[in-house]
Structure formats: C-alpha cells, structure tokens
TrEMBL record:
The keyword DNA-binding applies. GO terms for molecular function: DNA binding; DNA-binding transcription factor activity. InterPro entries: HTH_MarR-typ, MarR/SlyA-like, WH-like_DNA-bd_sf, WH_DNA-bd_sf. Keywords: DNA-binding. Pfam families: MarR_2. The lineage of its organism: Bacteria, Bacillati, Bacillota, Bacilli, Bacillales. GO terms for biological process: response to stress. SUPFAM superfamilies: Winged helix' DNA-binding domain (SSF46785). This is MarR family transcriptional regulator.
Length: 140
C-alpha cells in the first residue's frame, strides 16, 4: 500500500480540478444564463423527471440544499425575472405542489448544457482523469 502522503496528493489534485471547474462553470452560467450551478442542477434534474416536474423535497435531496435554501432558489427561478420554473398544484394532494420546468427553463438548460460541455471538454482534455483516479484508488 502506498503511503498516506501519496494518497493525499492524488486527492488534492482531484479536489483542485473540481474546484477550478466549479468556479469556471459558475462564472459562465451566471454571465450567460443568469443561473447558479445549483439552479443549473435544478433545471437538469427537472428535465429528466417524468412530465418535467418534481416536489421540492425531491429536488432538495437531488441538489443537496436545505429546505429553506431550495424554497428560495425555486421561488427566484419561478419569478418573472427568471421564468424557468412554474408551480403546479398536486391534484391528488392539494397541500402539495410540484415545480415544473417551463419552455424558457428548457431553453436555458439546453444553452447551459452546451457551455457546461465545452468547459469540461477544454479543462479535462489536459488532465488524465482516469490515471489520477487509478492512483487515488490504489492508495486505498
């Protein structure tokens, strides 16, 4: 087994790559689409859901936000200034609501997915991620 310093060095390389990517993605999404990375994740998860709708609790678990943070984020995304989401009352439980992806939300998602792909492609083409992961797992 390799020593712990090698293991930590490999972990720090992965952490550095992820931090750099998140920062660049956040910047581009904010400038080009007025979206945070978490908002992008909300759009993405909704796009994959049946009928493009989910309950807040489901989104909260998928995106990794607290209930209040998710409520604020979705509320902002439902507002006219963004318009990417809309509330939909649950027909079988009037107390429940769904959040649904709008056409504008779908357009924002498609554009941001293209940007996301380009950033990952340009950054990860210079890194042998598979080799770094192999080195990390060998240290376990």
């Amino acid at each position: 087994m390799k020593n712990n310093n090698d293991f930590m060095e490999h972990w720090l390389v992965i952490d550095s790559i992820q931090s750099k990517l998140k920062k660049e993605l956040e910047d581009v999404l904010q400038i080009e689409y007025n979206l945070s990375l978490k908002a992008f994740y909300v759009l993405y998860h909704l796009s994959k859901a049946p009928e493009k709708k989910l309950r807040l609790q489901q989104l909260q678990e998928m995106v990794g936000l607290s209930q209040s943070a998710m409520s604020r984020l979705v509320g902002n995304m439902e507002a006219n200034s963004c318009g990417a989401l809309e509330k939909q009352v649950c027909t079988d439980d009037r107390r429940g609501t769904y959040t649904r992806l709008t056409n504008l939300g779908e357009q924002k998602l498609q554009g941001s997915l293209a940007s996301f792909h380009e950033i990952l492609k340009s950054n990860l083409s210079t890194v042998n991620v598979e080799a770094v992961m192999k080195q990390l797992t060998e240290g376990l």
